[in-house]
Task: inverse folding
């Protein structure tokens, strides 16, 4: 599989927030299929055209991977082309009922390339009906459905749907099979519903009789399917129990995910209250695994991703057109970039100088130790072009800083390594360093917080005016008391 230039730039940008829908049923799902005439290809196209765009989808069905296989074939044929990842999500029922009369839902997720292994794993799970064991694989589920209906001629699809409905999994059996399967321990993720109707929250009773069972289920799971903000807070150690309790009781924090759980056309990729699922990373199953390891920083549920509101005015891309020493397709820049890491001589300073110049800073030109100053004679005909997250580009000639450019640069502040070294060279805190700190603090304040001041010193004077007045009053009162004491002594 080849990687396009656009995909290459996206990968080079590093971890960014992307929208996922990890729990979607498609036409042909074994239960509650309300898609009517919509086929799987149309459903994938609907998902691909949702706003914000969905880049990864967990294709879900009951006890079988058949729906995922059909979706994968349609996706390979071009349906839902903008979706970068489809992965199987097999939904099972645990053999425990909630207070609302529904079985607790459990989900098994794995990378798409291991769908056959997932089918093999399911075949090791058993459910006994009328003293006969049945495995969680299509032929056996069909036999279970026919046996339950007492109809050996029952249509295969109806029998499969009935068998998947009746099949229940014992937690101890699932944990045993999982623990003895090296593939499962490495590649399989277990998710449990967290709600009251069909999740672990429904196992709460006044006498706490199911607390141990609920904790066992949640301890076994890697993921909790819930959009409840309180659940997200709890499972990241910000609720009534801290990280130490979660680690002891549940083997660590859990990531909360949420999907549209679509069973009808209009529900595809459209969860209630716009509770969209966002994961930070590239479009791969590994991103989901990383979210399980670091849920507080790599997962989010809400109408927008966590970077919304912080993304405007950030650098998105840099190019040096027509030059072989810089990647021809340009470099994507992560809006949350905080460091450029590499060995000595790898070009870190050169990259920073090129970005700063294209963004509008004069520092790389005025600093004789900068890459642009030292390589000036080799940069004739080179220009840095910087793209911004809010749209538009800025441009600067790298050889002649005064050359007219068709795109006006946007003013930025670039603190080069040499600039920082110069500020910190003096013993103690130099005036220049202190002035720079004050400038940064002042620039971070919103206009309404500056109280009409034009710089940090003026704002400091305004903020301290009342305190200084009170200090002067106290000094005057002390002087008056001293005069009175002296007068008394004389008398």
Result:
């Amino acid at each position: 599989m080849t990687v396009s230039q656009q995909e290459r730039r996206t990968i080079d940008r590093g971890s960014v927030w992307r929208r996922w829908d990890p729990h979607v049923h498609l036409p042909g799902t074994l239960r509650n299929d309300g898609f009517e005439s919509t086929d799987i290809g149309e459903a994938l196209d609907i998902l691909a055209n949702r706003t914000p765009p969905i880049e990864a989808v967990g294709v879900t069905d009951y006890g079988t991977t058949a729906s995922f296989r059909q979706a994968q074939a349609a996706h390979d044929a071009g349906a839902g082309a903008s979706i970068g990842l489809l992965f199987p999500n097999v939904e099972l029922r645990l053999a425990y009922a909630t207070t609302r009369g529904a079985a607790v839902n459990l989900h098994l997720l794995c990378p798409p390339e291991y769908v056959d292994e997932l089918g093999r794993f399911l075949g090791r799970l058993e459910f006994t009906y009328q003293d006969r064991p049945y495995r969680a694989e299509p032929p056996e589920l069909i036999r279970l459905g026919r046996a339950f209906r007492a109809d050996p001629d029952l249509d295969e699809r109806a029998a499969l749907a009935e068998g998947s409905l009746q099949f229940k999994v014992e937690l101890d059996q699932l944990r045993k099979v999982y623990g003895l399967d090296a593939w499962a321990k490495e590649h399989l993720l277990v998710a449990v519903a967290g709600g009251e109707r069909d999740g672990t929250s429904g196992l709460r009773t006044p006498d706490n009789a199911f607390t141990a069972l609920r904790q066992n289920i949640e301890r076994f799971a890697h993921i909790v399917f819930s959009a409840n903000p309180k659940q997200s807070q709890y499972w990241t150690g910000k609720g009534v129990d801290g990280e130490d309790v979660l680690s002891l009781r549940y083997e660590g924090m859990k990531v909360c995910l949420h999907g549209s759980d679509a069973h009808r056309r209009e529900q595809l990729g459209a969860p209630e209250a716009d509770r969209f699922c966002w994961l930070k990373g590239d479009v791969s199953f590994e991103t989901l695994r990383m979210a399980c390891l670091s849920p507080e920083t790599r997962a989010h549920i809400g109408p927008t991703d966590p970077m919304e509101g912080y993304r405007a005015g950030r650098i998105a891309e840099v190019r040096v057109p027509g030059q072989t020493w810089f990647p021809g397709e340009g470099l994507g820049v992560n809006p949350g970039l905080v460091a450029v890491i590499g060995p000595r001589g790898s070009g870190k300073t050169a990259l920073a100088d090129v970005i700063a110049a294209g963004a509008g800073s004069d520092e790389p030109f005025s600093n004789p130790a900068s890459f642009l100053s030292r390589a000036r004679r080799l940069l004739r005909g080179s220009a840095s072009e910087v793209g911004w997250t809010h749209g538009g580009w800025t441009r600067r000639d790298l050889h002649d800083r005064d050359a007219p450019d068709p795109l006006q640069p946007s003013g930025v502040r670039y603190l080069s390594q040499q600039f920082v070294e110069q500020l910190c060279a003096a013993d103690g805190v130099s005036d220049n360093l202190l002035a720079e700190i004050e400038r940064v603090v002042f620039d971070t304040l919103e206009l309404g917080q500056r109280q009409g001041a034009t710089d940090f010193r003026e704002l400091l004077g305004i903020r301290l005016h009342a305190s200084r007045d009170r200090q002067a009053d106290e000094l005057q009162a002390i002087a008056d008391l001293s005069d009175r004491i002296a007068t008394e002594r004389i008398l």
User: Anything to note?
Assistant: The chain is about 40% helix and 15% strand. Residues 1-11 have pLDDT under 50 and may be disordered.
